[in-house]
Amino acid sequence: MPLNVDTHNPLVELLKVTKIYPPDVIAAEDVSLRVNEGEIVFLTGMSGAGKTTLLKMICCIEAPSRGVIEVAGRDITKLSRAGIQRMRQKIGVAYQDFRLLEKQTVKQNIAMAMEVTYAGTRKINARVDELLAMLNLSDKRDKPAGELSRGEQQRVTLARAAANAPALILADEPTGNLDPATTTLVVNFFRHLNEENGSTIIVATHDESIYANTDYRVLTMFAGRLYDYSEDEPWLNDIYALKSGPALGPAL
Amino acid sequence: MHFFSYIMHQTGKNLRQTWGTQLMTLLTVTLSVLIFTFFFLIYTNMIRAGERLGDDVRLIVYLEQELPEQLRREIENNIRAFGSIEKVVFVSRAEAFARFSAQLDQEKDVLDDLGPDFLPPSIEVYPARGLDDLARIDRLTEFLQTLPQAAKVQSGSDWLRRFSQFTKLLRVVVLLSGVLLVISLTFTISYTLRLTVLSRQNEFEILRLLGATSAYTRLPLFLEGLLQGLFGSGLGITALYLLYQNIVSRFSGPGFLSLFDFAFFPPELTAAIMLAGILLCTAGSLFSIRRFIRI
User: Fold this and answer.
1) B225: distance to nearest CA of chain A, Å?
2) Binning pLDDT at 50, 70 and 90, where does residue A241 land?
């Protein structure tokens, strides 16, 4: 675990969280998770395992069917509508489907995240330029988002998620459309956010290359349950080849 | 400071993005206000004119022959006993001739061959001011017809009746145009906002995900409705005033309009009409905001 992680201060805590979509689709079952301040956590698993659902619950897009979710010490399942909106301003989310406004420029898309917090124009412009430079998108500043490649759109989504230097960043498949060089750029971007701003980052990903050979925590979702991926547990190494039910060891 | 500048900036942005629809809405609001206030202006002036004309009502009883003094007093008492009578004036043949001569002015020499007795004596009965009940005037007319020596009673109730019916019709028109105003203002604004929201549904959804507060999203739309009401009502009233000035200048001098004191609304009423327009438009925008915005 990296040195700057505050193990006494959990930023995100899930306690026996279950999410059932009608009529009886269990997307997450009894998930308990603790993510400390300043930590980077990778969430892996097959498609449909529940990774995106978990992220959606943390950023208040979905409500759990059972269980408690606390972010920065606040039970988000009990927040009012206004409270949810204020919480969302403090959580940066990079969506798998980007959620960009295609007719608006890259700059406008990123600025939106800061405009909802009533940030000043100068501050917005400076921050947008800084993020674009970090993600190699400076030359796309005034281009409509719809004219970018998928990889570029993905980076714009990341920039928007980081615009307010939030305490928590959730990234859903942030490197899915990227080449190796750009993937490295994104990983370094996450490191920068974590080290410079102290942002806690949870990344849902299939891409083993971004967490392999790191000392970050790696968790695995399988059939709605959460497991701690560890090299000491070889029976988890080939999780994608598993055909029968969970002989996976204890779930979290 | 940032909050207000953001809200104004967003409002301006909303208006610019759907400027075509906004313009049509403004036109609708202006025309609705103009139509309503036009009929309302005529109605208020008609009411005022009717009140004044009602004050000048008089009934004339033409007599077969002159009445002796004692009979005059008796008849006057009988007339006053009817009630609500302000004045009773006996006009002899000579007095009637003198009045007629005065009216003819320089042409009075045409009367030289007629002599002073060709006009009948009469009794002029002036009802009390505020007696505008046509039925009561009709009863008074019937009563006067029963007076001794009464040949004919001239009351003018026919034109009063027609005037009153016209005023009632105008009241219906004003009410209908008022209903039209309410419907057109609230629903036009509501549907304009609906179009705005539908055309920016994606954007509103993303704003919701980014944590935009209710004020951030709703206030600019609310302001849109308010501004439409303000400018639409203002333009409508201004157009009416220009029309009024045009009519007054065109028909000033001797003529039908000179019989009436055709006046524009007093400032308080003008302000009240504008406020009503603003409130209706704001109500329309609130209705849409509650229905179509989920932040």
Assistant:
1) 22
2) very low
Q: Find out whether A18 and A26 touch, Cβ atoms under 8 Å.
A: yes
Nearest CA in chain A to B294: A81
Q: List Cα–Cα distances, A123 to A37, A105, A190, A248, B253, in angstroms.
A: 26, 18, 21, 49, 68
**Which tens digits make up the pLDDT trace of B119-168?**
888 999 888 765 456 777 888 888 888 888 888 888 877 777 787 888 88
Cβ distance of B211 and A118 shorter than 8 Å: no
Domains of chain B as residue ranges with CATH = 2-53+161-292 (no CATH), 61-155 (3.30.70.3040)
Instruction: Outline where DSSP puts E strands in A91-216.
Output: 91-94, 168-172, 200-204
User: CB-side exposure of B17: number of CA atoms within 13 Å?
Assistant: 20
Name the residue facing B206 among A85, A90, A112 (closest C-beta): A112
Query: Distance between CA atoms of B134 and B162, rounded to whole angstroms?
Result: 11
pLDDT tens digits, one per residue of A78-136? 999 999 999 999 999 999 999 999 999 999 999 999 999 999 999 999 999 999 999 99
Pick the CATH number of A6-90+166-241 from 3.40.50.1440, 3.40.50.2000, 3.40.920.10, 3.40.50.300: 3.40.50.300
Q: Assess contact for B212 and B6: CB atoms under 8 A.
A: no
- At B252 the three-state DSSP class reads coil
Distance of CA B187 to the CA centre of its chain: 26
Domain ranges across chain A: 6-90+166-241
Residue A105 DSSP class = B
Distance from CA of A57 to the nearest CA of B (A): 13
How many contacts (CB atoms, under 8 Å) link A and B? 46
CB contact under 8 A, B6 and A99: no
Q: Is A70 helix (H, G, I), strand (E, B) or coil?
A: strand
> Which residue of A82, A88, A120 is in closest CB contact with B210?
A88
pTM of this structure: 0.74
CA-based nearest residue to B32, from B130, B131, B178, B214 = B178
